[in-house]
Structure formats: C-alpha cells, structure tokens
Amino acid sequence: MRMNILVTLNSHYIKPLKVMLKSLFINNPRECFQTYLMHSSITEGGACRYPELR
C-alpha cells in the first residue's frame, strides 16, 4: 500500500524537510511513499542545491 505525503514549504524549510523525510524513510522501511511538494518561493537555483529533492 502506498502512503501519500503532501508537504508545503518555502525556502526556509528545506533542511527540516530533509530531516523529516529521512526519519520517515528510516522508521518505515517497509512502506512505500509518494511525496508531493507544494512551494511558493523556492527558486530553480535554490532547488539545484538539493538535487535529492528532485
């Protein structure tokens, strides 16, 4: 069963998002996740600093 995760954020919350996702994956190794990100102020340049979020 797939669990859908929707996260809303801006450029100030990228690092906490990474921590949350890592914790989610480590603590639920047998689960399958589909993640969706909604943002309003993350520039293309800002996103390039975090290729693992693409």
Written overview of the protein:
With about 55 residues, the chain is an alpha+beta fold. The chain has one domain. The protein is built from two helices and two strands. It has helices spanning about 15-25, 45-50; strands at about 1-10, 30-40. A two-stranded parallel sheet has the order 1-2. α1 (about 15-25) links the parallel β1 (about 1-10) and β2. The model has no long low-confidence stretch (mean pLDDT about 85).
Summarize the structure.
This protein is α+β, with helices and mostly antiparallel strands and about 55 residues long. It has helices at about 15-25, 45-50, and strands at about 1-10, 30-40. Strands 1-2 form a two-stranded parallel sheet.
User: How many helices?
Assistant: 2
| Quaternary structure annotation | single chain
Low-confidence stretches: none
Count of β-strands = 2
Helix content: 25-40%
Q: Strand-residue fraction? A: 25-35%
Defining traits:
two-stranded parallel ribbon, single chain, alpha+beta, elongated, 2 strands, 2 helices, 54 residues
